[in-house]
Amino acid sequence: MADKVLTYKDIDKSMLKSLPNPTNQAYEIKVKIPEFTFLGVKDQPDFADVYITFYPTDRIIELKSLKMYVQALRNITVSYERLINVFYDHLMEVYNPDRIRIVMVCNPRGGISSRLTIDSDWKVRGGQEKYSDWKNHMDDTWSVTL
């Protein structure tokens, strides 16, 4: 009997835990995940560096739970595009930040590299575009604007 193929629908957001924000003052949290691993749509391992910029409200990310969540993705078969959107949705639902920006820099596959970005501040995402740090970053460089 073949093993069940795990897909994005099997990603368990309940693994993500939060801590109370110790202050009501505005500040920014940056998280780098240098060994983000998952199975691509052809069941081949894919690797990426993921950068998260997080402006908390009343809850902050409990990093150990984020680590466990990320490790659980190693056996999930999913495309880059689906994964960054599911990851974004889960972080938004669990932490409800004032802003979250996720940049996923994927290692080359077949000689082609990919870089995906998603930001809750974008109007298309329901944001108000009140942060201007990304607006003028329209070049084709691979620097990561966090």
Task: Give an overview in words.
The longest helix is centred in the middle third of the chain and has 16 residues, at 80-95. The chain has one domain (6-125): GTP Cyclohydrolase I, domain 2. The strands form 3 sheets. It has a 4-stranded antiparallel β-sheet, covered by helices on one side. It has a two-stranded parallel sheet with strand order 1-6. It has helices spanning 63-72, 80-95; strands at residues 6-7, 18-20, 29-39, 45-55, 59-61, 76-77, 99-109, 112-119. The protein is globular, with a radius of gyration of 16 Å. It is built from 2 helices and 8 strands. Helices cover 18% and strands 35% of the residues. With 146 residues, the protein is α+β, with helices and mostly antiparallel strands. It holds the Pfam family QueF.
